[in-house]
Structure formats: C-alpha cells, structure tokens
Amino acid sequence: MSDLKNILREEYKKKKRLISPQSLMMMIEEMVDVFQDTTAIATGYALVENDSRETDPTSEEQTSDDVTVIRRPIVKITELWGQPGKDDRAIMEAMMKNIRGNTVQAKIKSVNDFLAKEPKPGQGDISEVMSYLIFLDTFASIISDYGAAVSGFLFEAFLAALFGNTSIQVDDPEQVGAKGSLPIEDNQLWMQLKQCKEGESSDECEEWGIVPYSLKVLRQNGPVHGSFKNLVDFFLDPAPQRMSDSITYLIVIKEAEKKGGKFGKWTGSLVFYEFVLTRQNFLSLIGAPKSVPIFGYVPFTVSSKKKQSIGVAIMDDGARKSLAQVKGMPLYQTEAGQPWPDGAPIPAETPVKRLQQVGEREVASAKLFSPEEYERIRGEFTDVDISRQIFASLKDTKGYGSKVAGGAQWTVTPKVYMAEDNFRGTIDLRPEVLKQKAEEYTQSLNASIVAIFNALGALSDNINSYFISGEKSAGSEAITHARILKDEVNKVIPEEAIEKQAAE
Questions:
Q1: Under a CB-based contact definition with an 8 Å cutoff, are residues 100 and 420 in contact?
Q2: 447 contacts: CB under 8 Å, gap ≥ 6
Q3: Domain-located, residue 193
Q4: FRET label pair with 253: which of 84, 463, 484, 498, CA 20 to 30 Å apart?
Q5: Residues 93 and 32 in one domain
Q6: Is position 390 within any domain?
Q7: Considering the domain boundaries, does residue 437 fall inside one?
Q8: Which residue has better confidence, 404 or 410?
Q9: Is the dihedral of CA 64, 65, 69, 71 positive or negative?
Q10: Which residues contact 46 (CB under 8 A, 6 or more apart)?
Q11: What percent of the chain has pLDDT above 70?
C-alpha cells in the first residue's frame, strides 16, 4: 500500500489548490496500475468484471436497515493456496493469520466464539474482524458454490493456507515420496501436537509438527470409503516425508433436514469429526470380518398350539429375532427334519425341532480378509509397537490383491466415526447468520475504516466500468469514491504518520 499512500500524500499536499474533476481522474488513472500491482494483492480486490453469485455472502448491499456493512474483499478461490511460496498462498495466509487455534478443533471453537460474541460499538479490531468474516465468506462459497469433487479439492487448499507455515495440499505422489500407489493424505498440516498444562512453560511442553490429514466431505450419515491397497502402502512407506505412523481423517458432514425418515436439503450447518488411524488400531477399524451367530435345529416340544414362522430364530437368550442369516428358514421342523407345513398349527405337546442359536459366533468371510487371513494376521499383531515388517502381512490378503477396478474399498460407518470422542464441533454457514454477524461487527469498527473499505470496493467497481466497459457515468462515481477514500485514509492515517513512515 506504500505507493497508494504516496499518491494520497501528494494529493494531501495539494489540498489548498482547487481539485478539479480532471485532476482527480488523473489520480484515478495513476491508481489503476497501483491497484493492480498492490491493492489487488494486499486486499483481494480484483479489477475484473464483477462476480455476482447470488449465494455469495459478500454480495449484500452496503446498507441494510440503516446498518452499514463493511465491503469485504472478493477473494480469488484457487488451488494455489495449497502450496507454500505462491503469491496467492501468501495473500490467504495473511488474511487468515488472526483465526485463533493451533488444531482443527481449536480453530472451529474460535470461529464459533466469533459468531457467538456480541461486539461492542467502536471497539472492534479490523484485522481480526476481517480475518473471520473472510474465513466465513470463503468457506461458505467453497462448500455451497461448487460440486462435491471441486468443493473437496478447494477445501484441502483452504486448510493448507489456514494452517500456514509448511502446510501443503497433497495432489502429487512426489510431494510425499509415495511409491507404487496414490497418496491417501490430502494435506500435511503444521499444527500443535502437544499443549502445555497449567504451570508449564512453552519451552518445556509445547510441540509442533506436520500431521497427515485425509479430508472427507460427506452427506448426512454417509460412510467413509477408501482404497485398501493405498492405505496399507501408506503405513508401509518408509519415506520420511510421508509421516506414515498415523493418518488423521477429518470428516465434514453437511447436516441435512430429515423428512419422512430420509435426509433432504442441507441446513447450512457443518459437523466435524476426526479419527486417527495407526498401525496399532488398524485391524479394529478397517475391514475386520463380522462374526455371526451359529444356528441349527434342536429337539423341542411345544407347550401350546403354535404357528409356523419364517425367518425367525430363537437367540441364546431366548429372544425371538428376525435375521438375514436365517431368512427363508422356518422356525419349526418335524422330527424327521422336514419344514412344518406353512400356516399349519402345531398341536400342543407335539415333539418338533426348533431353529435357534446353537453355538457362539463364527467369523464370516469379508471383502478384505478371509476368516483364515484375519485370524492369522490378528495373531501376528500382538506387539504394542507393530513394525512395518509385521504390518506387511496385510499384503497377503484378498483385499490388497483385489482385481476390482480401483482396488478393494474399506469402509468406516457413521456409528464408528461419530463416536463422542471424535466430535470436533459445528460451524453454521447459513447466509442469514453470516449477514447478521457482518452487520454487528461492522458497527464495532471505526466509521472511517468501514468507509475506506466500502469506498475502495466501489472505486474498484467504477474503474472497471469506466475503463473496461466504457461507462462514462462510472467516471463521476469513481471521482466521488476516490475523494472519500482520500479523506478517510487521511483521518485514519494522519499526514504526520505517513511522513514519518516515508522518512524511515
């Protein structure tokens, strides 16, 4: 912004001279290059034709019910956020630096604290307010304005910029040294690994590092799926940049309205869960074959008249239960082992055979492991520290060698990832909520700050219209907003401060 300040300073020195429309237009022309080179980079305002998405929370009118709403920068959403060293990444990091929290859960909490707070007029911090409003505007746009695949991809880049430092979005196996399979990690996020307890200094306990993350944006009650081979290869890969001792799954659920037992339209709320997968808990979470009851027919004498039941079995606790495993099997047989005639009553005191649970449970075949494979591997996974050599036994399973297109898929159900310990919070992105908070926080800011951002946005729009679209009337509007911008900048940044900074 230094070039802009220089221009404004020069105009300030000319304040005793009459400023004509022609001189102001010359000033605007000078500012076009400045805005393109600096302001668009510093604030996100782009001198391009307007993007008028109806769902964009930033598109509200500048005033609503006599409450002035600050004009937020229109952020260019880009996958370049995912890579350190890119200009777009640096811009977004600067915008997000005031989002407090050193973990996903902590950042969600800080966003909710911002939404729950009732700001006091005139006491707002412009840096903090703009960071949170831009976070909410951008996140809402990523989730609501794009299809599922694109939304997930942009969310990964957004997370990398949000956590900053050496955080990256992983979209190329070479970034993490993956060999022979696609990477399962979508991000490597720089975050706090250990927090200090009361009385401990940060030098004693604080620990930071890179954490591999896989991101899943799902519909309500959607299961988590993934490639079994790629997941096994992740834990076997010794490449140091792979960070392959654990992988954290971030599950983002688009909460939906429930109607008639089915889920419908997205409510605007996002629910976050995390679970960590390691070599130690792998078998308990991924693809363990289900155990099923063992049923058979045993002698039984009815005490009163009975009717035949199809698909019903007697469990070992005496409960009657309809089960898929016994579908089509009658509850009663004759002593000779023939089904009791359907619908025919069984006289009291008649000796028959009844279907019931006759043993404990047996392991059924699963798509990732056969029962024999599972028992063998479970017997090997006995150490607390399961080495890569032991873990390599998973390569000798039918799931790893699957010929199915894309390989065998593992599944984690909502019941597993929605466990209480995995819950990380919710964020409400309804447009009406974001609009209301923008109005409330606008009131907390210095009036000149609000005027500067609004005049800057209007000036950008009118310069577009005047120089690109040839709308002559926009030139007059540009003059007005350039004057407002100059006056309000001089209020917030006094001439003395500008001169001092220039001298330094």
A1: no
A2: 68
A3: yes
A4: 84
A5: no
A6: no
A7: no
A8: 410
A9: positive
A10: 40, 74, 76, 460
A11: 76
Structure tokens given for 188? 């490597």
345 versus 62: which is more confidently predicted?
A: 345
Here the tokens at position 323 are 């089960």
What's the rounded Cα separation, in Å, for the pair 373 and 370? 5
Q: Is the pLDDT of residue 33 over 80?
A: no
Give the up-direction half-sphere exposure of residue 161: CA atoms within 13 A in the CB hemisphere.
Answer: 28
Let me know if residue 37 belongs to a domain. yes
Model confidence, pTM: 0.72
Q: What is the mean pLDDT of residues 436-463?
A: 86
Token pair 């591997």 in the structure block, residue: 377
User: Which is it for strands 320-322 and 168-169: parallel, antiparallel or unpaired?
Assistant: unpaired
Claim to verify: residue 144 and residue 267 sit in the same structural domain: yes
* Nearest in space to 281 (alpha carbons), one of 249, 241, 239, 237: 249
Choose among 96, 235, 221: nearest CA to 158.
Answer: 96
For residue 323, CA distances in Å to 295, 355, 417 come to 11, 12, 26
Regarding whether 246 and 102 lie in a shared domain, the answer is yes
Q: Does residue 190 contact residue 123 with C-beta atoms inside 8 Å? A: no
| Average pLDDT of the residues in 386-395 | 93
264 and 173 together in one domain: yes
- C-alpha 95/C-alpha 110 separation (Å) is 15
d(CA 280, CA 387): 10
HEC string of 322-344 equals: ECHHHCCCECEECCCCCECCCCC
- Shared-domain flag, residues 275 and 306: no
Chain centroid, CA 97 distance in Å: 18
Domain enclosing residue 233, as ranges: 79-285+419-428
Which residue type does 323 have? L
Tokens of 358: 């006759």
CA distances from 15 to 19, 20, 264, 487 (A): 8, 11, 61, 11
Last residue of a domain, one of 402, 428, 454: 428
Same domain? 350 vs 471: no
**Cα–chain center distance at 85:** 23
Task: State the Cα angle at 481 between 479 and 487, rounded to 5°.
Answer: 105
Of 319, 347, 363, the residue at which a domain comes to its end is 363
Q: Is the dihedral of CA 340, 344, 345, 350 positive or negative?
A: negative
Residues 340 and 332: their CA atoms lie apart, in Å, by 6
SS3 374: helix
